[in-house]
Batch of 2 targets.
Target 1
Amino acid sequence: MSASISFDKERNILKIGNQPVVLHCHHYNMFLQQSISDLIGDEKARTLQISAAHRVISRLYESIRVNYSDPEQILTLGSETFKKLGYGIIDFSKVSASGGKILLPMSHYAFNWFEKFGPAKKGVCLFAMGFALATMNKAFGTSFDSTDIRETQCRAMNPEEYEYCIIEVGKNGN
Ligand SMILES: [Zn+2]
């Protein structure tokens, strides 16, 4: 089970399903995230980036016409897509329709943030949070607004203490 990936050599376009995608290195991604925070402030930047990732991944699922009825198939597709896009390893095995814990044994943002900037004050896996939320919304038929998501442990804050990142998802207000 995976989304089809194609590369048009003549037009230099990479697609997943029908959705064109752009790949960036960790330098670009870390500086982009930090630049947005510097520009509009950390809290607004966090909300914006989680929301943007959610929108992009939701559109990706629509473009590849994900219509599995079994949530497990969608969660597996999410894990495989996350890995194929180079964002690391995301584990949805501890979630249900009511939420749960998502583990990131390997996170592109957490690993590279620490290597580039040193210890982060807060979790930095904003793209992973939006990605996870879009995947769970797709799998369980929930909505962005009704779901609360936060990163409760991020390797970028202290890799000696935190081997991996933990994202917790629940219903809004719980
Ligand atoms: Zn993290």
Note: Strands lie at 5-8, 13-16, 19-21, 88-96, 99-107, 147-153, 165-171.
Target 2
Amino acid sequence: MILDTSKYLGPCSCGRDHELRTKLVVCEHGALKKFDSYMDDAGLSGFRTVLYDTNTYNLPSVTRVRADQEIVLEAQGLHSEKGLIEDCMTRFVRKPDYVVAVGGGTLMDFARYSAWKLGIPFVSVPTIVSADGFTADICSIIIDGQKKSIPMQAADAVICDIDVVAGAPRFLTIAGLQDIMAKCVSIADWKIAHLVSGEYFCERVCGMAQEALDLMTKCAYDLKAGKEPDIETMAYTQMLSGLTMQILSNSRAASGAEHLVAHLVEMKPRGFENAHGLHGECVGVGTLLVAQAYHKLAERESIEVKPFTPIDEEWVRWEFGELADGILKENENDVLATFPPENIKLHWQEIRGIIAEIPSYEELDSLYAAIGAKHTLEELGIDPVVKDSFLDISSAIRNRLTLARMTRLIAD
Ligand SMILES: [Zn+2]
Ligand SMILES: [Zn+2]
């Protein structure tokens, strides 16, 4: 399928005029064979520098595209680090008119950073689509030893050849599926935050996230029924998800309370010391836990609220140890202080209605178990003891308004 991004552009009922750098997204069998004509469609011409790594260069399923210069980076130890990318740029025989990157997220960051630095377009050719970064504009890069996620530049075109990405190992496809299915929570969190605090919300962008969620849910149930994975549709949902980030310049539509498990696994606070797992796997377990907690909250027919109080420093120091200073800083301008807590009570029935749209824990758990997706804390090496304080721990690490965070304003 070809995703015409122009339908998402222009003036919107949310009050904004939406823009996207990415004009063309192709998810098709044999797309690489028609690469040149897609470049014409995207209006890209001139000196073409194509980046591979030693793995993607030698993939039998990859049809190598015409190149004015090919650069093949050693895959072993390749990571997105400013120095390494600038070294790669010194190999350019001249300033390209555009760069094409054939590979996964790391190679995209090489192209993204180089293109941004040189003020030229780049084209993304994913060899794996278990993540939604291909259509986004975020560069995950190590600068001076620190990992940063910096909005930089989106690809002008994304050419995803299904014959190539279909070769990815099943566990990566499943992790990617869990990352998209997490939208059942992230969409709910966004809607609830909008209701309660008046936070910006866009029906059009939310509709894109919902479309990705609905399509991926169908793919998941097809897998459960024993069908072959529909890689084309799965790839399409990842592209759609990345576009929501590009339009919003943030991950609001794609990442809510459930995503924080992935951050905790990276940060390793108390109870998470031995935690491990792919991004999508962590997010998948997060989705289950949050779905369970939210449905439990929604059992209450009415609630009482309590006044805002800043996060308890002693508790933060106990839970987060040496990470505590960073957590306290994150909570300095607490989003919970920006609206009257009564708003949660006032909108409680609407909030319950939004939660009712989230599949139940049991439904998600049996689906994930059936398709071989990670679905327990133990599988991620996380101490199950954190389950009771999970919402508090996870919502403390990011100052984004989620229902999980709002529980600090809801009386027991
Ligand atoms: Zn994600
Ligand atoms: Zn809008």
Note: The chain has a mean pLDDT of 95.
